[in-house]
């Protein structure tokens, strides 16, 4: 019987799902609610200088890359399969749209993060 | 001999048929918002690499009432994602035996939710210390 | 005379020779608090409409014959009580995701045809003679597979599974649980052959972890766990198969 090709995509889905489940809510809170409303003194935390320093740090860079890329791979896999649940028969166009976008975001974010330098 | 002509019922709208399926669909649809937030962060990265003014402009955008309302919605959806993720997680695991007894699904979910709370708050504290 | 109340039972009926589409017929069924939905159906057949067709046998939740949809939820008719649905009406329909043969009888051919494919029997690791005696198992070894051996093939999990409904090519929750039961039995040696099925698109990769199958299982088999445990095993094997031969 032919093996399914899903496993690598499912593992990426799982990694992204776990990361977003553990830290997603706090990231959204910090960047989208706390910083704009200056709760807990967060506004100062997310200054240009601080964020740049974080993104230039090798671990910070890896963290940002993991968040952006893995969130997209998680979403791509789930959205692709949910299309099927909604009765849309997902063909190659749907596959490329979902996973293609995830790949594009992965490449773009890697490029941007590396261009920021160390 | 009696006639055989089986009848196949349509699947359209299956997920609206009961609360369990609706919760499942809500869980699946959180993925759209996880993607949306990743794109928000990607935009932030792009602005960051364009320099101080561009990044400040992006931060200003986040301060608009529309953006704040959207992120409050995102927050609720991410919390639901966390909850639904750790609820389904025990189903994906082989039995975990601790001290001779199998860890219950509720115990595994509880531990996951606790981990998320600890890691989330820990990350916040870490950033605070870093910025100081 | 025990207290008798009456409940409207709305049955989805279908006779292949007569109407093209199923239709609902309502029966007024007198019941006492100890009566199951199955007994309600038997009352209808005995006193109201002898043409009502449905499967049943043991009437004690072990044969797996009487599965029906009750108010849209898969149940064993013999183990669900009319009193719980009073004042009603209570809707009874054939199990979802299977073609209706007649009234409450579904065509279970797909399930039956797939059953031998999972090799639901012990394939000993080595040939064994009678003289060697019985297999010995520790309680821990028994625990690994025991819950999955409780499956009564009632197919409620198939009626629950939307992925099976959307694409009946997939093996389905119950058969994957049964497959897993043999794979984790210490006496068995046919894991590799069964995993071939598991690794395919028709195996575990059709599952999206809805989890409703385990909710409706009358025997607490937890097929969702059997399927999704095997996802991790299948994913790991996807990469490790190049490391060791014969996986």
Strand order of the largest sheet of chain B: 1-2
CATH topology type of the largest domain in chain C? Fumarate Reductase Iron-sulfur Protein, Chain B, domain 2
Give, in order, the helices and strands of chain C: EEHEEEEEHHHHHHHH
Number of strands of chain C: 7
Return the average pLDDT of chain C rounded to an integer.
94
Level of helix content of chain C? Answer: 25-40%
Write the CATH homologous superfamily of the largest domain in chain C: Alpha-helical ferredoxin
What's the number of domains of chain C? 2
Structural class of chain C: alpha+beta
Main beta-sheet annotation of chain B: 2 strands, antiparallel
Strand content of chain B: under 5%
Overall pLDDT score of chain B: 93
Which oligomeric state applies?
Answer: heterotrimer
User: What name is given to the CATH topology of chain B?
Assistant: 3 helical TM bundles of succinate and fumarate reductases
> Could you tell me the radius of gyration of chain C in angstroms?
21 Å
Secondary-structure topology with pairs:
The complex is a heterotrimer of chains A (118), B (132) and C (247).
Chain A: H1 6-37, H2 42-45, H3 48-56, H4 58-85, H5 92-115
Chain B: H1 19-49, H2 52-62, H3 65-88, E1 97-98, E2 101-102, H4 105-131
Antiparallel strand pairs in B: 1-2
Helix pairs in contact in B: 1-2, 1-3, 3-4
Chain C: E1 5-13, E2 23-31, H1 37-48, E3 67-70, E4 73-76, E5 90-93, E6 100-102, E7 105-106, H2 109-114, H3 139-146, H4 156-160, H5 162-166, H6 173-183, H7 191-199, H8 212-216, H9 223-240
Parallel strand pairs in C: 1-5
Antiparallel strand pairs in C: 1-2, 3-4, 3-5, 6-7
Explain the overall architecture.
The complex is a heterotrimer of chains A (118), B (132) and C (247). By secondary structure, chain A is an all-alpha fold. Chain A has a single domain (7-115), classed as Up-down Bundle (3 helical TM bundles of succinate and fumarate reductases), CATH 1.20.1300. Chain A is 82% helix and 0% strand. Chain A is elongated. Chain B has one domain (17-94, 101-131): Up-down Bundle (3 helical TM bundles of succinate and fumarate reductases), CATH 1.20.1300. Helices cover 70% and strands 3% of the residues of chain B. Chain B has helices at 19-49, 52-62, 65-88, 105-131, and strands spanning 97-98, 101-102. In chain B, strand 1 (97-98) and strand 2 form a beta hairpin. Chain B starts with 18 loop residues before the first helix and ends with a helix. Chain C is α+β, with helices and mostly antiparallel strands and 247 residues long. Chain C folds into 2 domains: 5-106, Beta-grasp domain (Ubiquitin-like (UB roll), Roll); 109-240, Fumarate Reductase Iron-sulfur Protein, Chain B, domain 2. Chain C has helices at residues 37-48, 109-114, 139-146, 156-160, 162-166, 173-183, 191-199, 212-216, 223-240; strands spanning 5-13, 23-31, 67-70, 73-76, 90-93, 100-102, 105-106. In chain C, strands 2-1-5-3-4 form a 5-stranded mixed β-sheet. In chain C, strands 6-7 form a two-stranded antiparallel sheet. In chain C, helix 6 (173-183) packs across helix 9. Chain C starts with a strand and ends in a 7-residue tail after the last helix. Chains in contact: A-B, A-C, B-C. Chains A and B meet through helix 1, helix 3, helix 4 and helix 5 of A and helix 1, helix 2, helix 3 and helix 4 of B.
């Amino acid at each position: 019987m032919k093996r399914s090709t899903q496993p690598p995509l499912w593992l990426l889905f799982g990694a992204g799902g776990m990361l977003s489940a553990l830290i997603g809510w706090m990231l959204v809170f910090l960047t989208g609610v706390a910083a704009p409303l200056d709760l807990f003194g967060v506004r100062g935390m997310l200054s240009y200088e601080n964020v740049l320093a974080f993104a230039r740090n090798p671990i910070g860079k890896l963290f940002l890359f993991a968040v952006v890329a893995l969130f997209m791979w998680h979403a791509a896999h789930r959205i692709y399969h949910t299309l099927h649940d909604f009765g849309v028969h997902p063909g190659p166009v749907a596959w490329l749209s979902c996973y293609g976008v995830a790949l594009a975001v992965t490449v773009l974010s890697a490029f941007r993060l590396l261009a920021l330098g160390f | 001999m009696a006639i055989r002509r089986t009848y196949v019922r349509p699947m359209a709208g299956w997920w609206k048929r009961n609360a369990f399926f609706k919760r499942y669909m809500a869980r699946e649809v959180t993925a759209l918002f996880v993607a949306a937030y990743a794109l928000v962060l990607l935009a932030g990265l792009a602005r960051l690499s364009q320099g101080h003014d561009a990044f400040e402009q992006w931060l200003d955008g986040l301060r608009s009432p529309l953006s704040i309302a959207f992120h409050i919605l995102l927050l609720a959806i991410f919390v639901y994602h966390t909850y639904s993720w750790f609820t389904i997680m025990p189903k994906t695991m082989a039995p975990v035996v601790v001290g001779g007894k199998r860890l219950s699904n509720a115990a595994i979910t509880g531990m996951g939710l606790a981990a998320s709370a600890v890691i989330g708050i820990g990350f916040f504290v870490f950033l605070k210390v870093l910025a100081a | 005379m025990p207290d008798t109340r009456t409940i409207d039972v709305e049955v989805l009926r279908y006779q292949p020779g007569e109407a093209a589409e199923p239709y609902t017929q309502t029966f007024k069924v007198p019941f006492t608090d100890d009566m199951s939905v199955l007994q309600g159906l038997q009352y209808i057949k005995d006193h109201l409409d002898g043409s009502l067709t449905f499967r049943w046998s043991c009437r004690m939740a072990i044969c797996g014959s009487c599965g029906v949809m009750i108010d849209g939820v898969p149940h064993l008719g013999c183990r669900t009580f009319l009193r719980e649905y009073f004042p009603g009406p209570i809707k009874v329909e054939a199990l979802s995701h299977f073609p209706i043969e007649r009234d409450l009888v579904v065509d279970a051919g797909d399930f039956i045809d797939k059953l031998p494919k999972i090799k639901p029997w012990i394939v000993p690791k080595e040939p064994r003679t009678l003289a060697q005696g019985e297999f010995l198992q520790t309680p821990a070894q028994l625990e690994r597979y025991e819950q999955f051996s409780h499956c009564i093939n009632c197919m409620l999990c198939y009626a629950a599974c939307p992925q099976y409904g959307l694409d009946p090519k997939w093996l389905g929750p119950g058969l994957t649980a049964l497959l897993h039961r043999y794979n984790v039995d210490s006496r068995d040696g046919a894991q590799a052959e069964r995993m071939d099925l598991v690794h395919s698109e028709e195996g575990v990769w059709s599952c999206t972890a809805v989890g409703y199958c385990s909710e409706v299982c009358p025997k607490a088999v937890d097929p969702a766990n059997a399927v999704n445990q095997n996802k991790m095993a299948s994913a790991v094997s996807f990469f490790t198969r190049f490391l060791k031969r014969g996986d």
